[in-house]
Amino acid sequence: MSLESEPFGSGSARIVHGTASDDILQLPADDIIELFKSAGLVLFRGFNTSPQVMKDFAGRFSTRFNRDRLRPTVEGSNGFVQMVTEGMGYVEPHAEQANSPFRPDALWFCCSVPPSEGGETLAWDGVRLWEKFTPELRELFRQKKLRFFQRYTAEKWQRFMGTGSSLADVQRTLEGIPGVSYYVSDDDSIYLEYVCSAVV
User: Fold this and answer.
1) Model pLDDT for residues 27-37, shown as the tens digit of each residue
2) What pLDDT is recorded for position 20?
């Protein structure tokens, strides 16, 4: 199956159209990677998918999966696909899990039941936004660091790390990560401090 795309939106994003009979897993991986490198955002529309197909598709390009400690998982995905709807309110522009040392390199969204009206997801082009900053503002961002504080109960870090993970597993994971310091409480909760650049 060949990969054909067309421009999408006002930035560099691209859209790939398919039909319910097209197998998204048959799309050429190398072409998708090259398209993503140049576009930054690729929308696949019309393909017949399921939570397991989505997990398998993302697994062709991603080396690890992050589990958000607050989001429920989608049935049929073995815990790898999570809901993103946390209500009907506006969500400000953000980088996914930027407050964590486990920020993903890529995000994969799958809409299995589109709403009859509304429900759009805005995608922000951070590169274009950066290009619109004044040189002084860019320099300010380069000079500044961000500091995030989070507390993970044992239930939350086990969900993130995976079933059967121990406190020693978490400590091995956190040791040596630049910008990370942590404290383990008597109840096995972890207080984490993460310091990182304001610019990725």
Assistant:
1) 999 999 999 99
2) 83
Sheet holding 145-152, edge to edge: 145-152, 190-197, 180-184
The pLDDT tens digits for 161-175 are 777 889 999 999 999
Q: DSSP string covering 48-87, please? A: ---HHHHHHHHHTT-S-----TTSPBPTTTTT-SB-----
Torsion of CA 59, 75, 88, 20, to 10 degrees: 60
| Spatial contact of 117 and 110, defined as CB atoms under 8 Å apart | no
Structural element, H or E, at residue 40:
none
Helices 167-174 and 154-161, packing angle to 10 deg: 70
199-121-118 Cα angle (round to 5): 155
> Count of alpha carbons within 13 Å of 169, Cβ hemisphere only?
11
Helix (H) or strand (E) holding 182: strand 180-184
Banded pLDDT at 66 (limits 50, 70, 90): low
Can you read off the two tokens belonging to residue 81? 């696909």
Q: Whose structure tokens read 């992050």?
A: 66
Tokens 């054909």 found at: 4
